[in-house]
Write a structure and sequence with these properties.
The complex is a heterodimer of chains A (about 220) and B (about 70).
Chain A lengths: L1 H8 L5 H12 L5 H10 L4 H12 L7 H14 L5 H22 L28 H21 L9 H11 L10 H23 L8
Helix pairs in contact in A: 1-2, 2-6, 3-4, 5-6, 7-8
Chain B lengths: L1 H23 L1 H4 L7 H29 L1
The chains are: A mainly alpha (about 220), B mainly alpha (about 70).
Chain lengths: ~220, ~70
């Protein structure tokens, strides 16, 4: 979400360009696929998958200068038109930002490896707050609210990363365009209630993995 | 609105450059001490500057569209 807001703040005008930068911001966490694969490999034994794969792999290969540059090259290849170099540069910036946020807000036990494969030196700060700490809750909640506001006012949102149709649907929901549809009054209220229940459940689902540690 | 937009854009660019430096170069160029108070101050200042500039620029974008 943050990368999409970053892309829009940098005045990227096409959905494709914003999408490339947004996915570039998320790209370092593609190593989560290794964890998913390990869970399958170890027959759903999450502890084994964590010990053998996740604790070794996470942040090591995709959180450093080499992967950031690779992200920039891929972004340049995917971008079209005269803005290619700018999109690639913003993709590099978004990927670097991800690394910085992991240093300060990923917890002291998850270092990044800035110059892997040249060195296995891991970098983090001992004061780095963990995923469950309140600053991350504030940022996440702020992004969720901003997503709804953006969709409602500007007619687009970070949902754009999943495609134009998904974004259009979300913007219509946020703008409550369903209210103009020729449906019966009672049915409209039910549909609206269901949509808001779904939104609340999504917010709860987003916060649940963080553990609700507000202390 | 244009000067404010330019200032926010400049702050955003600077904070992104600073965040890249702090994450990728700081331990090699300045100090690898994980308790370094200077790093802590700079990192939090960079974070605040980034979010402030991002919020300002997104607000400008929304205003353009509304």
């Amino acid at each position: 979400m943050l990368s999409w807001f970053f892309a829009d703040a940098c005045r990227l005008e096409t959905a494709r360009e914003r999408r490339i930068v947004a996915w570039s911001g998320l790209a370092p966490d593609f190593d989560v696929l290794a964890y998913a694969g390990a869970i399958v490999y170890y027959q759903l034994d999450k502890d084994m998958a964590f010990e053998k794969v996740w604790s070794v792999v996470h942040h090591r290969y995709t959180h450093g200068i080499a992967f950031i540059l690779l992200t920039g090259i891929v972004a340049w290849l995917l971008a079209r038109g005269p803005n290619r170099a700018r999109v690639a540069l913003l993709a590099i910036a978004a990927s670097a930002l991800h690394n910085f946020l992991d240093v300060v807000a990923g917890g002291p036990t998850w270092p990044i490896y800035p110059v892997w494969p040249l060195s296995d030196f891991g970098w983090t700060a001992n004061w780095s707050w963990t995923l469950a700490d309140w600053p991350n809750h504030v940022v996440l909640f702020g992004c969720l609210v901003a997503t709804i506001l953006y969709a409602r006012i500007a007619g687009r949102s970070p949902v754009e990363v999943f495609g134009d149709r998904a974004d259009r649907w979300f913007a219509d929901v946020a703008q409550q365009k369903a209210a103009t549809a020729p449906a019966a009054g009672g049915r409209r209220i039910v549909v609206r209630a269901l949509i808001w229940i779904a939104v609340i459940l999504l917010v709860v689902a987003a916060f649940a993995p963080l553990g609700f540690n507000l202390g | 609105m244009k000067p404010a937009y330019a200032i926010a854009g400049g702050v955003l660019a600077l904070s992104v450059a600073a965040s890249a430096f702090l994450a990728l170069a700081w331990p090699f160029v300045v100090s690898a001490d994980r308790d370094d108070p200077v790093f802590r101050i700079l990192a939090i200042a960079t974070l605040i500057a980034f979010f402030a500039a991002l919020i300002a620029l997104c607000a400008f974008r929304i205003r353009e569209r509304s």
